[in-house]
Amino acid sequence: MAETPFRPAGNRHHVVIIGAGFGGLFAARELADADVDVTLINRTNYHLFAPLLYQVATGLLSSGEIATSVRQILANQDNVAVVRADVTDVDVEGQTVTANEGAFTRTYEYDSLIVAAGAGQSYFGNDHFAEFAPGLKTVDNALEIRARLVSAFERAELAETEQEREELLTFVIVGAGPTGVELAGQVAEMAHRSFKGQFKNFVPSQAKVVLIDGMPQVLPPFGKRLGKRAQRELERKGVTVVLNALVSNIDANTVTYKDTKTDKETTLRAATKIWSAGVQASPLGKQIAEQVGVEAERNGKVPVNADLTVGETDNVFIIGDMMSRDRLPGVAQVAIQSGEYVGRIIKEQVEHDVAQADRDAFEYFDKGSMAIVSRFNAVVKMGKVEVTGFIGWLMWLLVHVSFLVAGRNRLVSIYTWTLNALTPKRYNLSTTLQQQHGRNALKKLREKAGDDNLEEVRDTNGEN
């Protein structure tokens, strides 16, 4: 006998939200005073502020400052039930969602479904690169990268030859979008400022940071002027910027890239590689798209209607990093605004029986893009307004502090950033072997034991 799908007692309109990233969280908040029951299913027990993962990776912040318990955030919202589980199946026709946590599996019946499962790292078909070049989409990724970075300097202290030390002190970052630029700037600052005087057998500033991208400029969405400003600042800080270059191979010790203009291949010896070149939407999007007769894009994003529904449905919404509409970028503001919008749509439907044809179309208000290039230096683009340098850095601080969902996290982050501005010290550089090797070790163990015995390891952002 098949299990009866679960729904909360009381038989109110049941909203299932998949993912507790910005989209899912803000949708749940928008429904706080609505006559609905909300089940929020998330793979982890925390809401992750992904734009600051690079600061965890480089020892500026601890993971606790950017990853906050979902239950704590929504503790005062009586109509929300939080479930930590991994969604494995969505049945659009049957209006059910199936999720499991280990051996425990439950199917949930929904009246409205909000899919905000986010996106993970894409290696453009070269998934084997992941073993040697972790992406930066999860807390685990950030802690692994931190361990790799710190370990490289520690091992360089023990290197027996200059060639070995040079390889250990070469850091390659693939992808010159905001994450890659911010990472490159912070790794250079670690070498030139934070680690100054801490090693006896070499000078940390001899480290080489290489930023590689296939595009002709860094930060393409920011425009040519800001891209050039960011590149000049990175180079001033000692970063080598390689553009028009596509990575063709990564292994334990090397990175090979090809110049797109000359087809010339170059191989760099580098112990530490980090990948920040692309994203792939959660596979749940493709699963849903196939059921409703919509074709998902190559990156997994799903085309949505003006009200962010998918296909001919009126109650299945795809938002944030998973949706494709008007070429909107995969940034926090898109997720926040789409989450709030869908929350309002469902609330209006429940309270006023608003038909789908009468729904207002989603309109995105672009609040701009920003990225820190170095200490006291950021680039900001808000419409036609472009800001750089110290003013841009202050704007970045204000915006990112406001995005942190917990008051304590705001205070701790402000304190930490102030200390880092005034002193070279970083207070979150502790690492473990588990952080450095755990992802690959668990993957190999799973392959040896079989998928039935160990939970699958996935490189996504934890929003499902």
TrEMBL record:
Residues 14-339 form the FAD/NAD(P)-binding domain. Pfam families: Pyr_redox_2. It comes from the Bacteria. The chain crosses the membrane at residues 387-406. One of its GO terms (molecular function) is NADH dehydrogenase (quinone) (non-electrogenic) activity. It is an enzyme of class 1 (oxidoreductase). It catalyses: a quinone + NADH + H(+) = a quinol + NAD(+). InterPro entries: FAD/NAD-bd_sf, FAD/NAD-binding_dom, NDH-2. Its EC number is 1.6.5.9. Keywords: FAD, Flavoprotein, Membrane, NAD, Oxidoreductase, Transmembrane, Transmembrane helix. Belongs to the NADH dehydrogenase family. This is NADH:ubiquinone reductase (non-electrogenic). It comes from Corynebacterium imitans.
